[in-house]
Amino acid sequence: MTLLNFNVLGEGTPLILIHGLLGSLDNLGMVAKPLSEKYQIISVDVRNHGDSFHKSSMKYTELAQDVINVLEHLNIKRAHILGHSMGGKIAMQIALTFPAYVEKLIVADIAPVAYPPHHQQILTGLKALDLPSLTSRKEADLALSHYVKELGVRQFLLRNLTTKDGKLSFKCNLDNIINCYPHIAEGFADDQNFTGQTLFIKGGNSDYITAAHREIVGAYFPSSKAKIIAGAGHWLHAEKTIAFNKIVQDFLSS
Q1: How buried is 249 (Cβ within 10 angstroms: 0-12 exposed, 13-18 middle, 19+ buried)?
Q2: How confident is the model at residue 140 (pLDDT cuts 50, 70, 90)?
Q3: Is the pLDDT of residue 190 over 80?
Q4: Residue 96 has pLDDT above 90, yes or no
Q5: DSSP assignment, residue 224?
Q6: What pTM, to 2 d.p., does this model score?
Q7: Quick one: which of 156, 160, 178 has its CA closest to 169?
Q8: Residue 1 has what pLDDT?
Q9: Is 234 one of the catalytic residues?
Q10: Residue 38 — pLDDT band, cuts 50, 70, 90?
């Protein structure tokens, strides 16, 4: 069995952190470090991301099983699960498929629904990077700027680059991610639900969770509640870290 790359920090009740699309376990570092004072934090790189293994399939049932494999490897029978964006969908799939493993569930700015494709420009821009001809991240950023205007988004995306023998390459498996994107955008097809305590945290300026999602959220997660962080977008944990961490800690300790 091949395990995801993971990092363990702190002691206490286990709390699993799962990053979003084109991210890595480092993306939730501002959550992991302060929470590690009270919890054992296990941060994972999703398959085809970070330093984890590469596979040609990325169905949510498979992504959930990957995380369960880490828990079993660490002999963890029950844990809190927190996921952001795509990681939130993985966290929801874990709760629906393996509820016995889940103490409390936290979903950051994503709903259990299918989303229309909206990363094409980003994926096209990354695929268009001619890495053998680029000599620095600065050159890569300039090339990517023709596709992605926001500097902060480009900086996030370019964290996928690594340098080996003086040459740039992707740590993530971009081709697999692009090919699997239709699965990543999907909702959940099963009729299961998770009755455990669940918290959805929404960025006030984000449209990833809307009032239209309320009924389907309630069907899948009947014991769920929601918190909104005013002034935050989709990257709410990075934009409003103190507020996000307080909401998480209050929910876990309640």
Answers
A1: middle
A2: very high
A3: no
A4: yes
A5: E
A6: 0.96
A7: 160
A8: 84
A9: yes
A10: very high
Structure tokens at 32: 């992991």
- Burial annotation 178-198 (CB, 10 A radius, 16+ → b, else e): bebbeebbeebeeeeebebbb
* Alpha-carbon gap, residue 123 to 126, rounded angstroms: 5
Catalytic residue, from 19, 49, 80, 234: name it: 234
Confidence band of 191 (pLDDT split at 50, 70, 90)? confident
Contact 208, 110 (CB under 8 A): yes
pLDDT in tens, 153-186: 999 999 999 998 888 999 999 999 999 999 999 9
What is the H or E stretch that residue 11 is in? Answer: none
Pick the closest to residue 100 from 196, 232, 182 (CA basis): 196
Contacts of 212 (CB under 8 A, 6+ apart): none
Rounded Cα distance, 235 and 225, in Å: 20
Cα gap 35→89, rounded to integer Å: 22
State residue 210 phi and psi, 5-degree precision. -130, 170
H-type alpha helices, the chain: 29-35, 60-73, 86-97, 120-128, 137-144, 151-157, 174-184, 214-220, 236-239, 241-253
Catalytic member of 43, 85, 206, 224: 85
56/58 Cα distance (integer angstroms): 7
